[in-house]
Amino acid sequence: MDFSSNLEALRNSWPRILDGILVTVELTVASALFAFLLAVAFGLGAGAKNIVLRGSSRIVIEFFRGTSLLVQLFWFFYVMPLFGYKLEPLVCGILALSLNYGAYGAEVVRGAISAVPRPQWEAATALNFGYWQRLRKVIFPQAWAEMIPPLTNLLIQLLKGTALASYILLQDLTFEVEQLRRSTGDTLFAFGVGLILYFVVGYVLTLAMNLLEVRAKSRLGSGHTVREMFGLAPVSEKPEEVRT
Amino acid sequence: MSANWSWERAWEALPVLLEGFKITLLATVLGFVLAAALGLLIAVARRSLPKVVSTAIGAVAQFIRLTPLVVQLLFVYYMLPQFTALQIGIVVLGVHYSTYMAEVYRAGIDAVPVGQWEAARALSLPPVRTWRAVILPQAVRRVVPALGNYAVSMFKDTPFLFTISVVEMVTAAQQFGASHFSYLESLTLAGLIFLVASYPTSLLIRRLERRLAY
C-alpha cells in the first residue's frame, strides 16, 4: 500500500470519521456531565452524617465501581430489553459510562470535601450560614479546585471507555477507524490516524480542564487568572522544583 | 427470551464463567507483573538517562496513556497476527498500565529525601547500588498501595480483551447468553463475580494504606 492512495482513502472517508469523532465527543461530554452530577450527589451522600444516607451512597458507589464497565454496558444493552425497556444504544452508553465513572468521581468529590479544613465549616457556621449555603459559598469552591486534577484523569478514562461503544452498535471513532482499515487494508495507517485523533481529543479535554483549574484557583485568590495565562505580559513562575 | 431469573440456567452458566475467570485472572496477574516491572524501568530510566531521552520516553508514555486501550488492543492484534490474542492482550494491558505505574514510581522516588541521595554519594556508591540498595527499597515501599489500586483497575479492565475475542469472563458470559437466549443470568453473575473479587481486595489495600501511612 502506498501512502498517496491511503491519503486518498482518508480524504474520502473523512466526513464519516468526523461523524465518528462527533459520536465519541457526544458520548464523552454527555456522560461526563451526568457522571459529575452523580459524583456530587453520591459524594455528598457518602460524606453525610446520616447513616442511612451514607450507607446507601456507599453501596451504590461500591456496586458501580466493583462491577466492570463492560458488564454494565452489556447489561443495559442485552438485559434491559428483557424487562421491556429497549434503550437506544446511545442511551445505554451514556448510562453505563456515567454510572461507572460517576461512582469513581463520587470518591473524588467525597475526598476533596473532607480535605477542606474543618475551621472553614466552623467559620461558615459562625456566620450563620445554613448547610447548603456553607457548601455552595465556602466549602465547594475550595474542594472544586482540589478535585479538578483527579476528575481530569477520570475524564480521560471515560473518553477511553467510549471506545467500547462500537460493540453496542454505535458508530463512534473506533468503528470508523475499523472501516478505514477495511477500505485501505493498511492497519498501521488506519490505526495511526485513529490513535492520533483520540490523542488530540484527549489533549483538548485536558487543556480545557486545566483552564477550569486555573479559573477555580484564581477565584480562591491563588494562582493566575485565565486572562493572565493568555496575556502577553510575562507571568511570574513558581520557583523551580529542586531536582536531585 | 425472558426476564425471569432461572436458577437452572445460572447454575449452568457458572462453570463457563469460572473457566473464563481463569483467563481473567491470568491476564490480570501476568499483565500486572509486566506493568510493575516495565513501569519501574521507565521511572528509573527517566531519572537516569539524558534529558532528551527522558522527554522522549515521557512523550510516548503520555501518548499511550491518552489513547484508548481498546484501540491499542485492536491495533497490535491486527499488526502481529503471529501471536495469540491472549498473548497480545496481556502485553498490551501490561504496557498500557506500565505508563500509569511509572508515574506512581516517580512520585515514590521523588518522596525519598534528598539526604538519602547525598549520603549514597558521600559513600561513593555507584549508581546501580544507589538505586538498588538505597532509593528503590524506600520508594517502592511507599507506593505499594497505589500499585495495588492499579492491579484492581487492571482486573476490571480485562473485559476489554473481549474486543480481540479473548474468552475471558465477560466474553464467556456474552457467548453463553447468546447461545442460551438469555443474557440475564450470565451477565449478572459475571458482574457479581467481579464485585466479589474486587471489593475485598480494595478493602485490603485501604488497610495497607493506613498502615503504611505513618
How would you summarize what this structure contains?
The complex is a heterodimer of chains A (244) and B (214). Chain A is mainly α and 244 residues long.
Explain this structure to me?
The complex is a heterodimer of chains A (244) and B (214). With 244 residues, chain A is mainly α. Chain A has a single domain, classed as Orthogonal Bundle (MetI-like fold). Chain A contains nine helices and no strands. In chain A, α1 packs across α4, α1 packs parallel to α8 and α5 packs antiparallel against α6. The longest helix of chain A has 44 residues. Chain A is flat, with a radius of gyration of 22 Å. Chain B is mainly α. Chain B is 82% helix and 0% strand. Chain B is built from eight helices and no strands. In chain B, α3 packs across α4 and α6 runs antiparallel to α8. The termini of chain B are far apart. Chains A and B meet through α2, α3, α6, α7 and α8 of A and α2, α3, α7 and α8 of B.
Secondary-structure map with pairings?
The complex is a heterodimer of chains A (244) and B (214).
Chain A lengths: L2 H44 L4 H16 L2 H11 L9 H27 L2 H9 L4 H31 L11 H12 L2 H33 L6 H5 L14
Helix pairs in contact in A: 1-2, 1-4, 1-7, 1-8, 2-4, 3-4, 4-6, 5-6, 6-8, 7-8
Chain B lengths: L6 H42 L2 H16 L2 H11 L5 H26 L3 H9 L4 H31 L11 H12 L3 H29 L2
Instruction: State the CATH class of chain A.
Output: Mainly Alpha
Number of strands of chain B: 0
Per CATH, the superfamily of chain B is MetI-like
What is the tally of helical segments of chain B? 8
What characterizes the major β-sheet of chain A?
A: none
Sheet/helix structural class of chain A: mainly alpha
The quaternary organization reads as heterodimer
CATH architecture of chain B: Orthogonal Bundle
The biggest chain-chain interface is:
A-B, 41 and 42 residues
Shape of chain A: flat
What is the C-level CATH assignment of chain B?
Answer: Mainly Alpha
Nearest-integer average pLDDT of chain A: 89
Strand/helix succession of chain B = HHHHHHHH
Total count of domains of chain A: 1
Low-pLDDT stretches of chain B are: none
